């Protein structure tokens, strides 16, 4: 199967993932802002529930042995534990462990791209948390930058994903995975913030 014109016109895998999911990203971004998660601590608590469900559902992928062989250090990138730390810091009850998503290794790359990329936009969200008087280690740790900076870890992740060899079907699966991940985030947002 030949890769589509869109996928071929972008030079690297992550650029192709970005090109294929930009519309999904922007709709998720709009939905997050429409949910006004930083208006007060109660709404921020709901946002933490969204993050708990999304990042929690990916934990098995971050811990997957095969994926860690292909993307060394992957297991250390999950922000799920930081989300739980944030919930505890705000005295919020921890929800049950979310159901784990189960996808092919190539689809998993798309899901992980979506999850890791959300760290970049988190710079903006982290600033918003300051309006709630939250410090990085008191309720907003999962949005805080890594001590080495956000860009370094993202560049390293991108280099690893771009360096993998995939066939055309797997390339398409990775794209489908990224789109499914944004879809999942949207669904969770709508469920947690019903109004
Ligand atoms: C209000 C919410 C959000 C805002 C304002 C936002 C904003 C941004 C911005 C400004 C960037 C580009 C940063 C840069 O290039 O330095 C970015 C990248 C990204 N964001 Fe978001 N974002 C939001 C939510 C999310 C969510 C919820 C997800 C995933 C579930 C997500 C996934 C991504 C991905 C995958 C990238 C990387 C795109 C690429 O360069 O390949 N974002 N975001």
TrEMBL record:
GO terms for biological process: heme oxidation. It comes from the Bacteria. GO terms for molecular function: heme oxygenase (decyclizing) activity. Pfam families: Heme_oxygenase. This is Heme oxygenase. It comes from Pseudomonas endophytica. The lineage of its organism: Bacteria, Pseudomonadati, Pseudomonadota, Gammaproteobacteria, Pseudomonadales.
